[in-house]
Amino acid sequence: MTEIINWLPLSGKVDIANNLISYIPSTLKNINGVEENIVATFASNKNFDNGEIKFNFLFTDKISKFQIVLNSFTSEPQVYIGLNTVDAFSILRLKDSKFDVLSSNGVLGSFNLNTYYDARITVIGSQINLYINGILVSSKEILIKKSQIQIVFFGPSEIKIKDFRVVSQKPKAFVVMQFTEEYNQLYTEVIRPVCESFDLECVRADECITIGSIIEDIINSIKESYVIIADITPNNPNVFYEVGYAHAINKPTILLADKKREKLPFDVSGFRTLFYENNIAGKSVIESKLRRFLDEITLK
Length: 300
Hints:
Elements: E1 2-3, E2 7-11, E3 13-17, E4 20-24, E5 27-29, E6 35-37, E7 40-48, E8 51-59, E9 65-72, E10 78-83, E11 89-95, E12 98-105, E13 117-124, E14 127-132, E15 135-141, E16 147-154, E17 159-168, E18 172-176, H1 181-197, E19 201-204, H2 214-223, E20 227-231, H3 237-248, E21 253-258, E22 272-276, H4 280-298
Parallel strand pairs: 18-19, 18-20, 20-21, 21-22
Antiparallel strand pairs: 1-17, 2-7, 3-4, 4-17, 5-6, 7-16, 8-13, 8-17, 9-10, 9-16, 10-11, 11-12, 13-14, 14-15
């Protein structure tokens, strides 16, 4: 759904009128008496973790810049999606007070001045894509938690942003497990209801298969999911493959294993692992632990 957005300046000068956001450059003398531009920060009332952010932007000089900020006030490092920052297009991560360039493209100052460009940022699962005029210019796999959208401006000249829209989508929980009645019951009675209570769309591997390549469908589903939940009780190579792929791309993963299993197939010390008893008494324990793990991941 498209959401109405309210904005509030936190620093610097930013005006908003008729769905037009205008950065107004301002300066302040430093300790040496030299005028320096002030960073302007604009905060919204919208929390975002999955879907699309769309807007049009215009530069009036070759050196001013702005960034869309995600992961504000969360346990994850802030992510900055920049226009005219490191390069023309970039995705950066602020970790331990240091910026890491995750993806960059284009040449600084290459935008046509006083010309509106169409920008679209998509976050599907943990895949961030930046499109300019419909062309993919920057991409990165990184976890985005539900957080306040902010815009940071800097430079000596005016920047305009208009028609800023947020189209939110439910993030997905992708479930991988053996397709037998025993595990069907665990899925329908425990996993799916708990995920839905966190406003996650719960999808199981057998529900996403198309007429194309099965492996490609599974990989795309893992990429597009916010969290992976996998039952590793039986020795199922497909499940192990999917868990391995999720781990390789740093996808948040929750492992489930029946306590009756004597030996696990691999070292689970680095994973959130839920050991359960598959009986009526154990159902409430599974639900409680799964909620706790999802709470850690989603910060509901």
